[in-house]
Records
---
Amino acid sequence: MKIRTFDCDGVIYMNKEVGGLRPEPNDVIITGRSYEERPETEKMLAARSINNAVYYNPLKFEEKTRASSGKHKANIIGQLQLEGYEILFHIDDDAIQADVIRQYCPDVPVVLVVHDFTEKENVRHVE
């Protein structure tokens, strides 16, 4: 199956006023958000009627970095490919994470969304 993968912050969620991009029903969300941030993430996605599969960063909130989040995303993309998915492209807004994904998944195009609506550093989300 051909799918696209989406980052959450800066792609699906830019901010409350702007909203964000919407994945198609079979697409997958790979977020740098920690598993600890699952409740607020699910609330935000539900408010936007987005019901796609979400892969959370396995690191605790305080432990994750932009680079480790990129590695997490690359790992999930690789896992999806091993499961038989063809990744058409990944959409991200963080150049550091995009570079990590390109390094580990050179066969997957990365679309970099450029804007200043979203903080790139590790912040808590109150949806």
---
Amino acid sequence: MFDRPRIPLALAVLLLLMPQYVYVIGDYLAAGIRFPFFRVQLAFPSVTAHGNATAGNLTVSTITVMREVQFITMGIVGKPLGRTAVATYLWLAGLAILILAVGLVLSWKVLDNPGHGRFVGPLVFVAGLVFLLWGAVQFGPIYAGPSGYAIPIGIPFVLFIGYLFMKAAKPDGEKAG
């Protein structure tokens, strides 16, 4: 399947661009879509006790991963080792692993280093697991709780693509298990 270099390169680009999570914060205070490098978040107008909105418009924000780190270091998020901070650090770790995997795909297919292909699958798979752990840390073990809920829409694809890369790196005589 990966005989042509365009297929693994396209999958690597897809890993970096596809949405990973859809989430809601709290009791519908905000909702968003999380991508590997950023998230797009809609903040809903606050509602008074009488059910009247205090503001008329939604606020749309694009928050990069580096901006999230700034929120933690500046103390805007709260405790430096609180749940959101730990979840952000996990996301950074998963993103670093994913970037390393994409770099290995480039080395494998563009620079013709076939030995690098065997590392791509496990790295992509681990990145998917770390992204999956992000949701459990941020929202709870079942991806729902008082802080909101999350649906890991892209994570199954990341894990599947990791499996495909692992299968492609096996020698011809071996079966993928």
